[in-house]
Write a structure and sequence with these properties.
By secondary structure, this protein is an alpha/beta fold. The protein is built from 17 helices and ten strands.
Length: about 425
């Protein structure tokens, strides 16, 4: 299942074990900061939105060589929840990308800017990005004892990475990050796609949003096989009403994103009904982050568009957003969804299936159509999830990582349902 999350450290300073600090506190440069949303009470001085986004700056001094440890921890937590697949957001080699554009002047000619970036060695750090992921994967496998008779259940959690682009940086930096990320995803199968992160109501994100969408449109033309998942519409009336006009719409129509993250302001967008119908027709899913949307934007329950998306037939899946700061897990989000919207078991099952159907795993789907009513022709005579699929179905599954994971999911459904 998709469990979208940035990777955070357990503790920034090795001298002080995490267990020595309160659960909502960690050490940073010799000082203790509270950065968890759990137990946080908004005040006139700081809102939930500010507390959430301010937390990320506190990780600035963390050594990225610990990434493998964090992946192992997240995968172990996922395994304990019966999660079989993760897409985790990371950004290797950020510092070079932050300096390569310092003497550049923005212009609307994206091709000439791309050529200038390439001439300055934009892609020189691709090998370093490979090495970063190699080191992280090796450390994760070592900590989990993967491949041994005593391996951790975390080793069985399939993991891919989403390269994140920071939206609240100069436009030329957004372009550089985007092109680097698309190139990396095109040559390293561990990088499943690209995302755009950061506070969407910050000045640069609002002022440059249309430019950002054109940048992604440009990059998608260069790398048509690379997947894109955009955080769009993570907005409320903290921005002027006209600021809610069209972020989701531009992500869908201009950037041609494969997925939307958040999409909270969709009912405030221009011609929202047409937009929702278009998303349903194009099968553009929305990653729903219930806890984050309440903590950061104050939007929950009947004010959240989750039931509206479902009413219009837009595919939805549950995601944690940033579980390290929210101090939640994916199970928490399923419980919250069930309690808030009176979801049936069939509803929950559809959400889980959506999470793999619209994942960025390579290969074709196990299902003939996204209503999950019929298997693909090669497996049409089989019962999904059985231990011994037919020869044709087995060949089909071996040719698609997505279908293999979907078959495994159906097997887990069978095991669960057999107990009732």
């Amino acid at each position: 299942m998709i469990a979208g999350a940035e990777l955070e450290p357990v503790c920034e300073q090795d001298q002080v074990p995490a267990t020595a600090l309160p659960k909502n506190q960690r050490l940073y440069n010799g000082l203790v900061y509270s950065f968890s949303m759990r137990g946080f009470v908004p005040s006139a001085g700081i809102t939930g939105h500010d507390h959430f986004f301010d937390a990320f700056a506190k990780f600035g001094g963390t050594d990225p060589s610990h990434t493998g440890e964090w992946v192992d921890e997240v995968a172990a937590r996922a395994a304990s929840q019966n999660i079989q697949y993760l897409e985790l957001m990371v950004t290797p080699t950020w510092r070079r990308l932050n300096t390569i554009t310092r003497d550049m002047t923005w212009r609307e000619d994206l091709k000439s800017l791309k050529d200038e970036l390439m001439a300055k060695g934009l892609l020189d750090d691709i090998p370093a990005a490979h090495a970063f992921l190699d080191e992280a994967d090796a450390l994760r496998r070592d900590r989990g004892r993967c491949g041994t008779s005593d391996e951790s259940p975390a080793c069985q959690v399939e993991t891919r990475y989403i390269y994140q682009v920071f939206r609240n940086t100069p436009k030329e930096s957004v372009l550089a990050q985007t092109l680097f990320g698309f190139e990396l995803a095109s040559v390293d199968p561990r990088v499943a796609g690209i995302n755009l992160v950061g506070s969407e109501d910050d000045y640069a994100a609002m002022a440059d949003y249309a430019v950002h969408m054109r940048i992604f449109q440009f990059a998608r033309g260069l790398y048509p096989k690379v997947h894109l998942s955009l955080h769009a519409g993570e907005l409320s009336l903290v921005v002027p009403p006209e600021g809610l006009c069209c972020h989701v719409r531009q992500a869908v129509d201009v950037a041609r994103t494969d997925r939307i993250g958040h999409g909270v302001d969709v009912t405030h967008e221009d011609d929202a009904e047409t937009l929702l119908n278009d998303m349903a027709a194009k099968r553009v899913p929305v990653e729903i982050n219930l806890t984050s949307n309440e903590d950061v934007l104050g939007i929950s329950g009947k004010n959240h568009p989750f039931p509206i998306y479902r009413k219009f037939g837009v595919p939805v899946a549950l995601s944690t957003d940033d579980e390290g700061i929210e101090r939640i897990d994916l199970t928490h989000e399923y419980v919250r969804a069930a309690e808030s919207y009176a979801l049936s078991y069939a509803d929950l099952k559809q959400l889980v299936r959506n999470s793999l159907e619209y994942s960025f795993l390579p290969g074709v789907s196990l299902w003939a159509a996204p209503d999950f009513a019929r298997l693909a022709d090669a497996c049409g005579g089989d019962v999904a999830g059985t231990d011994k699929p037919s020869s044709a179905c087995e060949t089909f599954l071996k040719g698609s990582e997505k279908a293999e994971q979907q078959w495994e999911l159906e097997k887990r459904f069978q095991v669960f349902e057999s107990g009732f």
